[in-house]
Amino acid sequence: MNVARGIFSGFFSFILVIALIALGIAVTINYTILNPDFIISELDKLDVHSIIMDQVRSQLPEEEPHMTKMIAEVATDLEPWLKKQTTDVIYAGYAYLKKDEELNIVISLEQVKTSIKGKLAQAVREFPPPELEGATQSQIDFFLSQVYGEIDSQIPEKIEINEAFLGPG
Fold first, then answer.
1. Taking the domains of the chain in order of start, what are their residue ranges?
2. Is 104 helix (H, G, I), strand (E, B) or coil?
3. From CA 38, how far away is CA 160, in angstroms rounded?
């Protein structure tokens, strides 16, 4: 009788340990990767500003230090906007993955354009390029209007993330 009790006790103890380990893993996953707040908090720990600046510096010519400064200011100005957009995208993505909602995320880039244009105008007025040295205000405004047109053509009005954007896979 004691032998049978020992076997059953050992067997059920083993089942209990396996169940507790599986439950611990499930709870950990639920509170981490399955939790949008956890993902957002982990993204907040990243130094996005320095990552963006490293990418920008690698693409700008070295003889344009004022452009690097202007872009750093734009990145700093847009950091709260970027955090809000990231939060919105994460929550919408989780809602889509849970099948609660259709995937339809629209990110307006008007604030990005406005910030870039404002910092560019400020930079041109403070440190005009060599071709604008001694130029009149109307010439500077004309130059800026051409650059603004180029910015408008390069940066879309909005980014839409939906099922068609992601593709069939």
1. 69-166
2. strand
3. 25
